[in-house]
Specification:
The structure is a homodimer of 345-residue chains. Chain A has two domains: 50 residues, Orthogonal Bundle (5,6-Dimethylbenzimidazole Phosphoribosyltransferase, Chain: A, domain 1), CATH 1.10.1610; 274 residues, Rossmann fold, CATH 3.40.50.10210. Chain A is an alpha/beta fold. The mean pLDDT of chain A is 96. Chain A has 15 helices and six strands. The two termini of chain A are 34 Å apart. Chain A is globular. In chain A, helix 12 links the parallel strand 5 and strand 6. Chain A has a six-stranded parallel β-sheet, with helices on both faces.
Chain lengths: 345, 345
């Protein structure tokens, strides 16, 4: 973050017609946007685009979720047809939606295959990861390729004019690699960071914790080697999201993080380059316990905290108007002098 | 709330392409909007307008704030000139702003007096309340008149096409009557519900608590007589905001409540007619301790919780896109059947 712009931000906020500090967390976000853009006031971050990275997971075979794997491909079709919650929220807050297939296992629905939809970026590294309980989820080369796809997606979205990027994800069973990643990067026991995902029962939850524990015992991933961790127990969308954050940060473009998948990816991105956090804003806190642990480790405070646990980018989209409002206040609000308002005695 | 529409809402949410319950608090808001409008899906609540009720307070003479009283009138001028934070946020989220003068003490700035601004509703009941430590803040008739102005404002805003109303307030020293009202309606000691307002020091805070304590000892207000409570220790904007909520509820129009001033007013409105809460959504939780007590008593969970303590309607405006997104999801999101997505096993 640029020190000069940060200083200007705090100085300007003192002169704006409001009691000092009265915008709470929004003053911190405003200052971050100034430091990131090197401008005070900062550009209002619009237009914005949510990038949904979709992938499948070999660990699905271990029975960690009651949802069939083909739902990943079906939901990609739903996103591209505009029928998912992420589409409704994006329409309401004025963001675009794009879907990046980094590793969907099943064939995409026929309207997508026939080119009757727009918004898909076909970037499949492999059709789903391998089962992390029997071997690495992917090779190191594949993890790097997914990271590169994320970086390239950030570059393409910024080149297309977007001033802010929102993370989204789709992948049946993807809270399992997310919990594994969070366990590794935060040094927390899998039992404490493994949640109910889409709403699993006690038996499935116990199995999910055991699956993660076995995978970690098998690979003994080293948090000092983030690419190795992603390859061993990560997912293609987790790796790509980490790349997206790195790419956006290098372009000084803010990124609003969605839930637990983005939180896991941000831990990996931070392990690769800690400076990435300068561009990251925590959009919301999901109901997943691992997300709380991830945000604490990242030192990020969520904008929205309403028990969402859907993914897709839905929680982060709700934070977009908050972030934009923080930036707009820096532009539009009069100073005590200019408005002829008396300051406190 | 309409039971049939509520039932339809919960049924529809189960069929939408998302894990059951995964939208958390937004599912509760969606259902409330269905029950309120008697329709499922509910109308998307736009356009929306924030109504800023402005008034002054005789208790200012007791030294409860370092801000001069004329700032109320100056800020009304700032709102009408578009230079305040509420204007910036309203512009960002797509809401209109109007200002209702129910009791500003000083003359309004000359551009306003000369009719060079639009958006002011001149409804002055009296130029500021009297000092509650020496007598009632206003007469019972004046409190009723302020309530009526709030009801009429709701009627006018709905007649003008607004589908949702946002509460706003301006009044130097108005956290003092708010804390007094909250103390009375929640049965909490003044020390526990009196905050720092715009950021006062320890000495002023101690004086503020003492002022409230003395006023309550003088009037011994009966929470069973809410109009009497408003007259004794309330403010004109608090009474008018209570009326706004009652008027909106009677028109089945949702109201997003801002911070501690709206919380105090909602307690008064609830004491007059408990059904008012069916129309109320807590937009945010402010940093004021009294607001937490008020929300707990009202049984409302805030949408936004980011340490804002500015008032004007700013916190509630940030919640508008969240509420609208909740409604839009009910409209736009496909069902498992229609989207060809497999349900969980």
């Amino acid at each position: 973050l640029d020190a000069k712009a940060l200083g200007e931000a705090w100085d300007r906020q003192k002169r704006m017609t409001k009691p000092a500090g009265s915008l709470g967390m929004l003053e911190i976000i405003s200052a971050q946007l100034c430091g990131l853009s090197r401008k005070c006031p900062p550009p209002i971050p619009e237009p914005a685009c949510v990038a949904i990275f979709a992938g499948d997971h070999g660990v699905h075979a271990q029975g960690v979720t009651p949802w069939p794997q083909e739902v990943t491909a079906q939901m990609v079709g739903n996103f591209l047809a505009g029928g998912a919650v992420v589409n409704a929220f994006a329409a309401q807050v004025g963001a675009e939606v794009c879907v990046v297939d980094v590793g969907v296992a099943a064939d995409l629905p026929s309207p997508v295959q026939q080119g009757r939809t727009t918004g898909l970026l076909p970037r499949k590294v492999r059709p789903g990861t391998a089962d992390m309980t029997t071997g690495p989820a992917m090779s190191r080369e594949e993890a790097l390729r997914a990271l590169e796809i994320g970086i390239e997606t950030a570059r393409d979205l910024v080149a297309a004019g977007n001033k802010l990027i929102i993370t989204g994800d789709m992948g049946i069973a993807n809270t399992t690699p997310a919990a594994a990643l969070i366990s590794v990067f935060t040094g927390t026991d899998p039992a404490d960071v493994t949640g109910r995902g889409t709403g699993i029962d006690d038996e499935t939850h116990a199995r999910k914790v055991d699956v993660i524990r076995r995978a970690l015992e098998l690979h003994k991933p080293d948090p000092g080697d983030p690419v190795g961790v992603l390859a061993a127990v990560g997912g293609l969308e987790h790796a790509a999201l980490a790349g997206l954050m790195l790419g956006a940060a290098s372009l000084r473009t803010p990124v609003i993080l969605d839930g637990v998948i983005a939180g896991a990816a941000a831990l990996a991105a931070k392990a690769i380059a800690p400076e990435v956090l300068a561009a990251c804003i925590a959009g919301h806190r999901s109901a997943e316990p691992g997300h709380k642990a991830a945000l604490a480790k990242l030192g990020l405070r969520p904008m929205i905290d309403l028990d969402l646990r859907l993914g897709e980018g839905t929680g982060a989209l709700l934070a977009l108007p908050v972030v934009q409002s923080a930036a707009r206040a820096m532009h539009d609000v009069a100073t005590f002098d200019s408005a002829g308002v008396t300051e406190k005695r």
